């Protein structure tokens, strides 16, 4: 009979100074290394993919820990499991996102037309919002999207194309005063750049316009134009602040998810709540 080889269980070591507590199947204290040894069983996942120990911990403690992370780390946590997504996407976790965003030096406040997770994704994520391509650095703040070069040509249109999409009864003198746009490519010495309009938002605006024209063409259209012009002005002002921040401070954002901090904090939580965890 062939000899059975025992499987190696990887261990995660989180060093904690001045730890003195009895050992347990989940948490074992090594007095020589002064460390908490967490085996894979302590981080075992339940059938639905959630970290089981999180169910037994107060949300206030989790929120306090998560609020000290980088917004990109909070984003990755919310995508790591269904349980963490439910926790971090609930209305009660709003303070986590707000605190995490406020910890970033110079970052403008979250705009009113985006949620905090959406703003964190726009500012720190590196994926194209259309095709999910990686390592995309071009952020078009005025349109609230991050796009690769391929998708720019697909989801942004010229003013000529936009005017052909507008209802014939409308005569908008300055489309850039209402419709979100970008200047692409970025202007240079010998390259002025071209104004391109965000196609998904333009289509949404045109649907609104068609309803407005069917109701009260004069009064409703005037009110709609003023409202969209105000929104466009606020969006452009906020975009300039974000672009300035990205130029000065954006390079400091982390390239990859630093899971070490989260594992250390969760291990410490399991140690503090070991009696409750061992009951399950």
From TrEMBL:
Transmembrane segments: 257-274
InterPro entries, per database record: F-box-like_dom_sf, F-box_dom
Source species: Hypsizygus marmoreus (White beech mushroom)
Annotated Gene3D superfamilies: 1.20.1280.50
Keyword check for Transmembrane helix: yes
Keywords: Membrane, Transmembrane, Transmembrane helix
Name recorded for this polypeptide: F-box domain-containing protein
Source taxonomy: Eukaryota, Fungi, Dikarya, Basidiomycota, Agaricomycotina
Residue span, F-box domain: 51-100
């Amino acid at each position: 009979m062939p000899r059975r080889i025992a499987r190696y269980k990887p261990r995660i070591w989180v060093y904690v100074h001045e730890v003195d507590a009895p050992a347990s199947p989940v948490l074992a204290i090594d007095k020589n290394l002064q460390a908490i040894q967490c085996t894979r069983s302590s981080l075992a996942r339940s059938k639905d993919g959630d970290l089981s120990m999180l169910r037994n911990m107060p949300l206030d403690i989790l929120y306090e820990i998560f609020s000290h992370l980088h917004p990109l780390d909070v984003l990755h946590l919310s995508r790591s499991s269904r349980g963490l997504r439910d926790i971090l996407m609930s209305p009660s976790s709003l303070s986590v996102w707000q605190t995490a965003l406020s910890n970033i030096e110079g970052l403008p406040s979250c705009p009113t037309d985006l949620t905090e997770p959406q703003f964190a994704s726009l500012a720190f994520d590196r994926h194209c919002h259309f095709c999910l391509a990686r390592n995309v650095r071009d952020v078009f703040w005025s349109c609230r999207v991050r796009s690769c070069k391929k998708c720019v040509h697909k989801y942004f249109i010229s003013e000529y194309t936009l005017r052909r999409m507008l209802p014939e009864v409308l005569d908008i003198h300055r489309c850039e005063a209402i419709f979100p746009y970008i200047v692409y490519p970025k202007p240079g010495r010998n390259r002025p750049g071209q104004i391109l309009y965000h196609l998904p938002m333009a289509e949404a605006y045109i649907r609104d316009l068609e309803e407005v024209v069917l109701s009260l063409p004069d009064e409703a259209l005037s009110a709609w134009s003023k409202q969209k012009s105000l929104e466009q002005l606020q969006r452009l002002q906020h975009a300039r602040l974000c672009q300035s921040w990205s130029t000065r401070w954006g390079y400091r954002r982390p390239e990859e998810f630093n899971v070490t901090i989260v594992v250390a904090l969760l291990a410490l939580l399991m140690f503090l709540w070991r009696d409750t965890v061992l009951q399950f």
